[in-house]
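G., before I forget:
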Amino acid sequence: MNRKKTQFCSMDTDLLLDADRRANRYLAEIADMDVFPNEFARSSLSRFDENLPENGFDTSETLSLLDDVGSPGTVASNGSRYFGFVIGATIPVAAAAQRMMLAWDQCASSYTNSPTADVIEKIAARWILDILDLPHSSGVAFGTSATSSTLVCLATARRTLLLRKNWNQDVRGLRGAPEIRVVISEKVHVTVLKALRVLGFGEQNLILAPVDEKGSIIPSKLPQLDEMTILCLQAGEVNTGSFDPYLPLMTAAKAAKAWVHIDGAFGLWARAAPKKRHLTDGVEMADSWTTDGHKWLNTPYDGAVGVCRDRHAMAATMNSDADYSSASADSQKNLGIEFSRSARGIPFWAVLRTLGRTGVAAIIERHCALAEYVADALVEAGFNLLTRPVLNQVLFSFGSSAETAQIQSLVAAKGKVWFGMTVWNEAPAMRVSISSWRTDTHDVDLLISELKAVAHVVRSAGYDDSWKPKD
Ligand SMILES: Cc1ncc(COP(=O)(O)O)c(C=O)c1O
């Protein structure tokens, strides 16, 4: 046993150097990879299907299995030709910061656990509030995702509203608690629904706010609000990128003393871009906000923030002090979900320090301009644009539903680019998202030419869609 441990340690440097070498090679080759792994690469993944080893394998052999078999089976979303979902790549300085974090292996719960992590995450929090122009005294919790960050914000919202009725949820729980109304957009993201469900609000109790053709709430149709209402708005609808009209909605919410939460998983970053900032006017009046780093800021997974205007309420809701582990109220373990945690704020810090305000704005604005460019080219090529791009998303179809679906799968099968399908107005639609810092005009030109070539084939083949349900 001792011998094995010594061997393992002496191999440590070589192993990590080999991992770095392999990682660098992967990144160098990503420009030529199939964006979605081919059949052979995917079927080779069965080589991972081993029985739990009795005595363990050699470390270098484990690394080589991971790279030789695992790398070809990955989706090249860290490259420039991936247009699926809203998935950013990783800016190299964030990957480098993550590399240091792995070496440090800090449990970044509080200053006592890691002075470096605590100090840097506090600065990252300040910079995020600064660049997004949110109230500077807000609490900021770095979480794993927009989903978990929304959970934190909505838990804080509920506890705060109940306290208004002198109901201390921490002591009394929820049985018999005053009722809280939750108003959501008809186009609410599924993960906000998930957070509400997990918190026990019950889907049948949620009140829907009607939306327009782009998916933005129609202010004149906003359901009744009161001081026991949580209103969930969004910045960046997942298909169209649309924003809710905050000024009239916030005015109504403020008058009613409702709590407003903003799901801005990717769209909140429009606030950092002078040409798009107007779309977010009024968003700063909300009570809580969620956004991701791992989408448009191009930090690695898992990186997100939950922000609450009332940092004391957030800290009271999320506190996890124990006799053996008490820390300041603004320690990350007392603001977010995790007790033991990685310092997810550090990649945010690294990216913001490297890009600065102008660098972030340049990425956002470039992606939005590329989305416009793609939209125009697709219209010219006979595609049906379902809405003009608001941000970095392009939503379109071609011919019938079956033709639309066939085009997406044929383009994906060729492996040069990848984007996904969605449903818009109850019909299948293609959705392109431009979110990778690596993507430039050359990549979107390739996307456009792939789409045109496949559309031509589908049209000339007179694709038979009789087996599919009609629109
Ligand atoms: C608008 C919106 N909200 C929330 C989420 C969930 O984000 P995460 O995957 O970080 O939980 C997404 C993800 O696509 C999104 O687009």
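Residues 85-86, 145-147, 189, 191, 234, 236, 238, 263, 265-266, 292, 304 surround pyridoxal-5'-phosphate (CB under 6 Å). Residues 466-471 have pLDDT under 50 and may be disordered.

More on Monday.
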